[in-house]
């Protein structure tokens, strides 16, 4: 039997999609977690990094058209949230079925993004300082020259993507947006609340103890709330109150 909801999970800057693999054991059986691997990492290590946000979004949207699941949603943390937003807009322009919902974590709303925050992070020292500030990188990475070099390479490429993002006025998405944030993150609550203007449908904002990686630091508190939000899109709940989507799209 196919899963009731496929959750495509996009990683944060400097990380691979393996950060979501443990969710496959922690989330209910009606959710199928599909980590989205970006070019240049994991199983796509032999591929070149994309050099701009628009190019990466269109590349991922192209891949989404290959194998459609019936019901799906996007989850994105930090840069992944911005990519999920961009892909949803690309799909709308292509007149393709949209995800049932967008779940975004630790990411300022598109209208509150500051590309300059990433543009000056081009030295190893500045990247390492950022990693330590965010408190999401295991100490073993800093102690291993090989792991640290790989992490910095990914982070530098991803910050180039983030620095190339420019917010453009567009119609709000006709899908619900659910936002999550850490109370100790430098992303102010007002920047999370600004996601409300990006949707014509339902909106929610949940805050948790912790910083930028609250979803790891306080996973026991975060995952039940994520499940509660996703449960709104189980067929027995969603059908009748919302449209029943046609076949949609996935990343292979």
UniProtKB/TrEMBL annotation:
Any matching Pfam family: Thioesterase
Domain (Thioesterase): residue spans on this chain: 6-222
Gene Ontology BP terms: lipid biosynthetic process
InterPro entries found in the cross-reference section: AB_hydrolase_fold, TEII, Thioesterase
Domain of life: Bacteria
Family classification: Belongs to the thioesterase family.
Name assigned to this protein: Surfactin synthase thioesterase subunit
Organism per entry: Nitrosospira multiformis
Lineage, top ranks: Bacteria, Pseudomonadati, Pseudomonadota, Betaproteobacteria, Nitrosomonadales
């Amino acid at each position: 039997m196919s899963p009731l909801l496929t959750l495509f999970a996009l990683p944060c800057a400097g990380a691979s999609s393996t950060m979501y693999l443990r969710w496959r054991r922690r989330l209910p059986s009606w959710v199928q977690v599909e980590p989205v691997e970006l070019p240049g990492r994991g199983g796509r290590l032999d591929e070149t990094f994309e050099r701009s946000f628009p190019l990466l979004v269109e590349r991922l949207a192209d891949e989404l058209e290959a194998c459609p699941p019936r019901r799906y949603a996007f989850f994105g943390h930090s840069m992944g949230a911005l990519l999920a937003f961009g892909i949803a807009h690309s799909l709308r322009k292509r007149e393709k079925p949209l995800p049932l919902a967008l779940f975004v974590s630790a990411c300022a709303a598109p209208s509150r993004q500051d590309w300059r925050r990433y543009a000056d992070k081009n030295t190893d020292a500045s990247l390492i300082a950022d990693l330590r500030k965010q408190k999401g990188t295991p100490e073993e990475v800093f102690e291993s020259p090989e792991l640290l070099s790989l992490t910095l390479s990914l982070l530098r490429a991803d910050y180039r993507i983030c620095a190339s993002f420019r917010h453009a006025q567009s119609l709000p998405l006709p899908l619900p947006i659910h936002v999550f944030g850490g109370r100790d993150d430098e992303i102010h609550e007002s920047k999370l609340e600004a996601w409300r203007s990006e949707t014509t449908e339902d909106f929610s904002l949940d805050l948790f103890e912790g910083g930028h990686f609250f979803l790891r630091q306080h996973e026991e508190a975060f995952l039940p709330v994520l499940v509660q939000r996703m449960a709104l899109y189980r067929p027995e709940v969603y059908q009748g109150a919302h449209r029943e989507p046609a076949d949609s799209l996935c990343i292979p």
